[in-house]
Sequence to fold (372 residues):
Amino acid sequence: MNRRGRMILFLLSAAVFGGVYLWGLKGLPPVGHYRGPYGDVLNQVATYERHVTDIVTAVNFDYRGFDTLGEEFILFMSVVGGTVLLRRQREEEKSEHKDQALSDESPERQAPEPSDATRVLTLGLVGPLVVFGLYMVAHGQLTPGGGFQGGVILATAPLLVYLGGDLKKFKQITSHTLVEVAEAAGAGGYLAIGFAGLILGGAYLRNVAALGRTGMINSGGTIALINLATGLEVAAGFVLLLYAFLEQTLEIRLRGGK
Amino acid sequence: MSFFPYAVAAWLFIIGLYGIVTSRNFVHLVICLAVLQSSTYVLLLSIGYRVGGTAPVFAGVPVGTLAVDPVVQALMLTDIVVEATVVALLLALALQLHKHANTLDPDKLKALEG
Fold:
């Protein structure tokens, strides 16, 4: 389709979208006048029922925990898909620069060295970020945050190492096998906690662990445990994706591309 | 003013779609898709918003304080995760495409080879 045809199609769809959207808005309350009962009910009861203070986390990992299990496996499958898409292709395998890749010294194939400023800033940030990520994962049931958010923050630590160093440093601090195991353990851990609820409580993902005291780090029962599993899965998943993408930058650089 | 966030959501959707339609680079296209999808965040959050409501986090404020809807916020988290996965997969596809076709311009692509 040429550009003009595409523009016409776009204008038509935008007009239809605008019409249907306005029609839909007629049924919505004005912003700020939320009417739904579910959120209000949860805001009232979740703290008493589950001993958590962050209701959003309680919804995600308890009341709506089964959906989040699906969500976690969307992420899992996307990591698998990304790794498969970015795998070493047959012709790349043949060229056999697998081993010499890291020791290739010809100047035009080298990435420029990161500046001292980059190196100091990125390496200085690694420690605080790891602590912050762990804090996010562990305090999901108390304050905003949780497994997904904390996991992503944790995964940025090896990326910063790559930015401040090179792929070799990135590989030194992340073992591919170990990250794969962590990814599987995180995803499987969520499933297993669900089965624990089935066996001990009669329903899948029922919150069967001790609820603890509201406001403490071990409160929330399975909510806290699932957050840990999710944090592990998300961090490992993102590191695996980074691994696949960064391998490709090397592949492309070796072919003389930009 | 009370419908303004809904208008922002519609604008993000339309401008993202416009970017996708007119894109000359697949990476740009993927980012436009991310912009388009962020319209759903604005829409979800504005549906759950309540004038004078606090965040649905009762650490420091007593239970019973007027708060916004936590359910749409939880849905939005799902939304963000889905966006991240879609963007990752599409960028991986764009990378492979560039290796095979040597271009990222959708208009310069020839018919698919088997």
